[in-house]
From TrEMBL:
It is found in: Mitochondrion matrix. Signal peptide: none annotated. Its EC number is 4.2.1.48. This is D-glutamate cyclase, mitochondrial. Keywords: Lyase, Mitochondrion, Transit peptide. One of its GO terms (cellular component) is mitochondrial matrix. Pfam families: D-Glu_cyclase, GLUCM-like_C. GO terms for biological process: glutamate metabolic process. It catalyses: D-glutamate = 5-oxo-D-proline + H2O. Gene3D superfamilies: PSTPO5379-like (3.40.1640.10), PSTPO5379-like domain (3.30.2040.10), TON_0340 (3.90.1640.20).
Length: 617
């Protein structure tokens, strides 16, 4: 590749003249005309133009439309003063009936056909390279003097008529410490694809081998670099191939049309527009994205539920941002398994307490509204009780439909793995995320204890096995919600439980979850998860990241999500139903506890009201 300092610093009109005269061998335009916008090119017959424009608007992450020409118009006056698309790309590709038939440096020989064709100029990520460099971030492909790496993904674009294809992405290695800076530098440059659509393991996009890009050159990662993926205009090339038009032209990937338009410096406005990055999984490596505004709201929820009724010491178990990270992981999941049930009243029938099921059902209701698969696993002896509770929740309007109810028994060493994965195959998990809320957790000695140090192991099925097995399955993450340290998933804070919780040395759960949510009452944690998932779903930055910048925003479903939120009325009706089934309160000291001056039994409604109020801020 020829990329001298002179070419790099030349103005666009001079570069176009050099390209037009074919005086230099230019293999790609990355790093050229720094600070100016570059464009992908798609040229189609005029009969296809309207549908392709709709396709661009439906997938504006990879295909931000800068300009559409009239049929036979080789210029683009709003982008450049003296251009001719027939000669001003370093190299173009020719497609006939979807088949690539060759590359050319000039389209002049096709001038007659071009009279009936329309040119689309689409934004390009080369345009943001200078912004990344200005943020102190290395651009590895420029350093290595090669084209950027481009990959076909398994992510389908939104189809319009004959235009259908999977998303194509570019990959740029970014030092881990610079991830958020890279996102900030590109997020508002929407005509250059905007913020990344994926950060982390390429396999999550269906990319098998970074060393074998579908277009461009392999770019080598330095130690500490993270692969970061942006939507790419070469998606338009794939759309051209799949529509099989008799004749079409595109730029050769990396050989862009250079415009006269500068990338104006963009100042991010409100906190709803400021993206933040969080790691939600190490195996596979996966980061998520959310706005600063949504982050703060979820942190406020975490603070609300973290109060310590009765000063039991749970405030010492709190770990910041666990609610946020857990809900980001849940938001990315397709299928979620929930477990609850703490038989603290061992001498009664049923022995369950009423803390846990309402929170579990609040989570399940929101997951249903978000169109995720959800199931509940519980003790075999409690199946009938839980079926009645689920049926009640449907009749009361809490759930849209019954949740599948499962039980787990340990039959052999592979039982948990076979329960979680098809035929025990770790590459085919049935669930992406497991949630335990107020579920009795196994202590270090293998027993299960209530808060008074009574061993209740005879009443508890070994559902902990599922959380232990999940640690060995790539892509499956777990969350534990508790209010005393003896609940499943609290192993992450077991040392604090032993130090600060009464009987902690004995009762502390030994089984960890990836994320540990500590609440004054576990039900509050369930309500907070439901509210946090709502916040994430209504966050434009997170929504775009989830759908990989293809298709349309999901905010039209907001009414459905709102109707799934917990409410005082729902909670009161469900608690009455639990009483009818003989389920008792689990807080033995509840009459002595007060929160904000209210008796403990009245604080559940107050907490729900506070959580919902936070959503309105």
């Amino acid at each position: 590749m020829l990329l001298t300092g002179g070419l790099k610093s030349l103005l666009p009109h001079v570069l176009r003249r050099i390209i037009r005269c074919n005086r230099h061998s230019i293999s790609n335009t990355s790093g050229m005309a720094e600070g100016y916008k570059q464009a992908n090119i798609v040229i189609l017959h005029k009969s296809l133009a309207d549908d392709f424009e709709k396709f661009c608007h439906a997938n504006n992450g990879p295909l931000p439309l800068l300009y559409r020409s009239k049929p036979g118009d080789w210029k683009c006056p709003s982008l450049s003063s003296d251009s001719d698309i027939r000669t001003d790309c370093p190299q173009c590709r020719v497609y006939e009936h979807g088949a690539f038939t060759g590359s050319v440096k000039s389209l002049k020989e096709y001038s007659e056909q071009l009279k009936d064709m329309v040119t689309f100029y689409l934004g390009c990520s080369f345009s943001f390279e200078k912004a990344i460099q200005n943020a102190g971030i290395p651009v590895r492909n420029v350093e290595q003097e090669c084209n950027v790496s481009m990959y076909k993904t398994a992510v389908p674009c939104y189809s319009i008529s004959t235009f259908c294809c999977n998303l194509v992405v570019t990959m740029r290695p970014i030092p881990e410490s610079k991830l958020e800076a890279a996102v900030l530098a590109t997020s508002e440059l929407k005509e250059a694809h905007g913020a990344p659509i994926h950060i982390g393991d390429p396999g999550l996009l269906g990319i098998q081998d970074l060393s074998k890009p579908d277009y461009g050159d392999p770019v080598h990662l330095h130690p500490g670099d993270i692969p970061v993926f942006w939507a790419c205009g070469v998606t338009g090339v794939e759309a051209v191939i799949n529509c099989r038009s008799p004749l079409a032209f595109t730029h050769s990937p990396g050989c862009m049309f250079i415009t006269d338009l500068k990338n104006d410096s963009v100042t991010v406005g409100s906190s709803s527009e400021v993206p933040q990055v969080y790691c939600i999984s190490q195996d596979p490596l996966h980061y998520s994205m959310v706005s600063a505004e949504a982050t703060q709201k979820i942190k406020n929820l975490e603070n609300l539920i973290g109060i310590d009724p009765g000063d039991r010491g749970i405030i010492h178990l709190h770990r910041p941002d666990e609610l946020l990270k857990a809900c980001l992981a849940i938001s990315h999941a397709r299928s979620v398994l929930i477990t609850t049930g703490f038989p603290t009243h061992f001498s009664y029938e049923p022995p369950e307490e009423n803390d846990g099921p309402p929170g579990a059902l609040a989570i399940a209701a929101m997951l249903q509204a978000l169109e995720k698969d959800v199931a509940i696993v519980t003790d075999q002896r409690a199946m009938d009780l839980n079926k009645k509770i689920i049926d009640d929740a449907v009749q009361l309007g809490i759930l849209k439909r019954p949740v599948p109810l499962l039980s787990y028994q340990r039959e052999n060493a592979d039982s948990a793995l076979r329960f979680l994965c098809e035929n025990g195959n770790r590459r085919r998990p049935r669930f992406d995320h497991l949630i335990a809320i107020e579920r009795a957790g196994m202590a270090a000695d293998g027993n299960y204890y209530n808060a008074r140090k009574v061993n209740i192991k005879n009443l508890v099925d070994p559902i902990d096995d599922l959380f232990l097995a999940a640690q060995t399955i790539p892509g499956v993450t777990t969350t534990g919600v508790g209010d005393g340290g003896n609940e499943l998933g609290m192993g992450k804070v077991k040392e604090a439980v032993k130090k600060h919780i009464k009987n902690g040395d004995t009762i502390a759960c030994d089984v960890e979850a990836d994320f540990t949510i500590v609440a004054g009452v576990s039900n509050w944690g369930g309500y907070a998860i439901a509210c946090a998932l709502y916040i994430l779903s209504t966050c434009e930055i997170h929504d775009r990241y989830l759908r990989k910048a293809v298709g349309f925003p999901q905010l039209l479903k907001k009414k459905t999500w709102l109707s799934a939120l917990p409410s005082v009325t729902k909670e009161e009706k469900l608690l009455k139903a639990l009483v009818q089934h003989g389920v008792r309160s689990g807080k033995t000291a509840s009459l002595e506890m007060e929160v904000d001056g209210l008796p403990f039994y009245d604080t559940h409604s107050l907490m729900i009201e506070k959580l919902l109020q936070e959503l309105k801020q």
